TrEMBL record:
Keywords: Disulfide bond. Residues 140-329 form the PITH domain. The keyword Disulfide bond applies. InterPro entries: Galactose-bd-like_sf, PITH_dom, PITH_dom_sf, Thioredoxin, Thioredoxin-like_sf, Thioredoxin_CS, Thioredoxin_domain. The gene is txl1. Residues 113-136 are annotated as: Disordered. Belongs to the thioredoxin family. The keyword Disulfide bond applies. This is Thioredoxin-like protein 1. Residues 1-109 form the Thioredoxin domain. CDD domains: TRX_family. Pfam families: PITH, Thioredoxin.
């Protein structure tokens, strides 16, 4: 079922702006080629992030709803507007998925804030000890080390890629970078309802994480809620600055930037492990590949609920362009 509402009147749209904390509006035209091109991207984002009475995605036909289009000064299609508490706070014009991603990253944080206010249990416990929701409502599985911040919103969400995922039992890769508290459920009615990912044919996963800006990474945080069928990761390998995801054979033949064994005692009561990185090797990072090599207790499947990057984000580069950094990082 689509998570996008098609607006049929000014009254309907005004009502949604009042009832939903965040509203994302896609102003389009049926004759617009770029609108048709970007429509599946918009639908996919909505399927992952829409939440009742908190985050609402709508489509507005500018020919059928001329009064609404005029009110918001829509002069080009498609145009995407982000509303918070009924007020426009961002506008993206054109059918470029990378431009839309900047809106998505803002939405993720707004979604976390909305979740904390909704009483749904996704982020209302507050920040304490090993994790919770911070002042802005963004759920954290563990506190950030002193002097560093959560820079997960610098992930180019639309270009992330996950290999060996069980599409029938798990959600889309983008749920890993969401701002809401994981449900911790062991099963979902459908893959689109799952807010975690699981491996498919064996326990290995390969996650490609491109960044919007050159970053210094200090800590990797992984949240995993084990089930009878899927365990937490045990051995992981990290590869920095790859321009694309690695294949499993390629990863085996490539020297990892860092290899880590996660012990059972590393997981806190939020189900999160904070993994310190060799900081000198993660100084000029434009992308990260996370290779889950094995699962705990020799399990045949592995599960990931959230991934967080902790460090410092630098000046944003042009979206979508990755430049591989050489051996200047040192040992």
């Amino acid at each position: 079922m689509s998570k996008v509402t098609h607006i049929s009147s000014q009254t309907q749209f005004a009502g949604l702006l009042k009832s939903s904390k965040v509203v994302i509006a896609d102003f389009f035209a049926t004759w617009c080629g770029p609108c048709k091109m970007i429509a599946p991207v918009f639908e996919n984002i909505a399927s992952q992030l829409a939440r009742d009475n908190a985050v609402t995605f709508v489509k507005i036909d500018t020919d059928a709803q001329k009064d609404i289009a005029a009110k918001y000064r829509i002069t080009a299609m498609p145009t995407f507007l982000l509303f918070r508490d009924g007020n426009e706070i961002e506008r993206v014009q054109g059918a470029d998925p990378r431009k839309l991603e900047s809106l998505v990253n803002k939405l993720v944080k707004e979604a976390g804030s909305a979740g904390g206010a909704s009483g749904s249990g996704s982020g209302g416990e507050g920040s304490s000890g090993s994790g919770g929701a911070d002042a802005g409502g963004w759920w954290t599985g563990a506190a950030a080390p002193r002097g560093y911040t959560d820079i997960t919103d610098n992930v180019e969400v639309l270009r992330t890629e996950l290999l060996n995922v069980d599409d029938a039992a798990a959600g889309n890769v983008r749920v890993l970078f969401g701002g809401s508290r994981p449900t911790g459920k062991s099963e979902a009615l459908s893959a689109s309802a799952a807010d975690w990912v699981e491996s498919d044919t064996d326990e290995q996963l390969m996650l490609f994480i491109p960044l919007q800006s050159i970053a210094k990474l200090h800590t990797l945080q992984i949240t995993s809620n084990p089930t009878d069928d899927a365990a937490r990761p045990e051995l992981i390998k990290l590869y920095s600055n790859s321009p694309h995801n690695l294949g499993f054979d390629e990863a085996e033949d490539t020297l990892a930037t860092q290899e880590i064994t996660i012990k059972p005692t590393d997981w806190n009561d939020q189900g999160t492990a904070s993994i310190p990185l060799k900081f000198v090797k993660f100084q000029n990072i434009t992308s990260l590949v996370l290779f889950v090599v094995s699962a705990q207790d020799g399990a045949e499947k592995v599960r990931l609920d959230r991934v967080r990057l902790i460090g410092e984000a630098g000046e944003k580069r042009e979206m979508g362009k990755l430049e591989k950094i050489g051996d200047e990082q040192g040992e």
